[in-house]
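User: Can you predict the 3D structure for this chain?
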Amino acid sequence: MIMLGIETSCDETAAALVEDGRKVLSNVVASQIEEHKIYGGVVPEIASRRHSEAISAVVGEALAQSGRSLSDVSAIAATCAPGLIGALLVGVNFAKGLALSAGLPLVPVHHLRGHIAANYLCHPNLEPPFLCLVASGGHSHIVMVHSYTRLEVLARTRDDAAGEAFDKAARAMGIPYPGGVELDRIAEAGDPRAYALPHPRVEGSPLDFSFSGLKTAALNLLHNAAQKGQTVRVPDLCASYRRAVVDCLMESFRAAALETGAQRLAAAGGVSANRLLRRELEGLSRELGRPLYIPELSLCGDNGAMIAAQGYYEYQAGHRAGMGLNAAPQWEIGADFP
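Assistant: Here is the predicted structure, written as structure tokens:
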């Protein structure tokens, strides 16, 4: 079965063809990073307009690269939530029009389920159940993946997501957008013990995350140094800040692994490309003697292949959408589409 996946939840216009949920036939991503860089972050209205301009060509290129035509496609999967509502609507409406004109089934896909499914493309032997750390620019969750379409949230952030915390701190340090990626690179040359930063916890919810206090601590450190005329060693602050964020993620994920007894561990989302996080996850895998699954770097960010992969399993579970399908800025990962 060949699934066409369409992803437009933020600032990447993406489309891909995937066979049987595991084999990538094509994967095309049109990035808007350079345009948003001058604003220091994603501007939702600009993102929506650029999706509208690019989506037809991106889907056409995905078909061309795969060597297949629309007549070879069995169904169309589209990210419906969560994300920027204007951006989501572009992908959803394009998918609806294409499905209607081609007489193909339409499959709604949760963006974070798609990130988790990126692991199926990289690890053919991975099957549920497994425990997954999902960390991205807008989300930070620990999810128990009971089956391909039954997922349970064990922990979540109470405020900022890990990726958001990286990007905001990077901006304060003068690092250009996308800051989290560059902060990670700069941190490799820094001393993670140079600056003392907090490791916030959520009282009464030991597995949940909270990054707003950590972000504020870094901003205060920068402001206080500027007021005193002191120089902040950016590589050291990057390393110290990265260490604090990763420690928070790993403390909760390790506790969840022990609590659930999950025999397979995984990570997904844009932050799963972070160098230190990947090293720490590998260390946890060795410590517990449990296999670890992480997508290759090219599939950590937003892409159409992950949506097509999850779309295959949603289709197999009988999940379909009609022409009344709408986008939604929020959608609980374990719930049916609203």
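The two ends are 27 Å apart (CA to CA). The chain has ten helices and ten strands.
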